[in-house]
Amino acid sequence: MQLGLVGLGRMGGNMRERLRRAGHEVVGYDPNPDVTDAGSLAEMVEQLAAPRIVWLMVPSTVTENAITELTGLLSEGDVLIDGGNSRFSDDPPRAKRLAEHGIGYVDVGVSGGIWGLENGYALMVGGDVEHVSKIQPIFDALKPEGEFGFVHAGPVGAGHYAKMVHNGIEYGLMHAYAEGYELLEASEFITDIPGVIKSWRKGSVVQSWLLDLLDRALDEDPKLAALRGYADDTGEGRWTVEEAIRLAVPMNVIAAALFARFTSRQEDSPAIKAVAALRNQFGGHAVKKG
Known about the structure:
By secondary structure, the protein is of the alpha/beta class.
């Protein structure tokens, strides 16, 4: 098949390569002249034969502008895919606007990071059966070999919703490993923390790819001394917790993991200052002066 791919960064660039290895033709566009196949979005679209398929792999902050520009470049019968981390609620309005021009819309949650080139990407897809079926050979080339790694999760919005929940779970899993690591670090009994992590990688119920990556990080820096204890969040964790509130679903672990990231950004927590002040007021407990 032929595909236009917008965004050739860490994931998009590897996706282009994986698709080409599978025999598909990919015309990529990126503002970086060192990696792009076309000088502009318009030039990329011109190189594609109708009906066209164009896949966006750009940050959510620029997705809307890219869709607006592509709406004026694509034609009836074409399909536009958003594979970035957009909020699921943005998808139905986009699909409606594109449908007015006869353009199909599919949203895809993509997981796999920088390892997807060799391992394949987990794909969570939302959209009409007609549009998804048209793109299926592309999905088959990107997903891992075997029965797992792909789902047509439902109508437009379902792909990004599934990816949102996926990333919320990721928050919780990462923080559980992180808390375990901290306890090992604090213990007077453990003398080989990297060795403990390695011992969990096979035969253990907590083995996972995330654990493998923690092991890899400790191989590179056994004390994680080069890192600061600061973690960003890119939106999906917040959206997951917001949905839990909307649907009254208890989400203790994921919410706590999200709030832990907020805590990591505070140099001197105002909340803990208030706790210290209260302990001093009601019990005369000692406080540390700023």
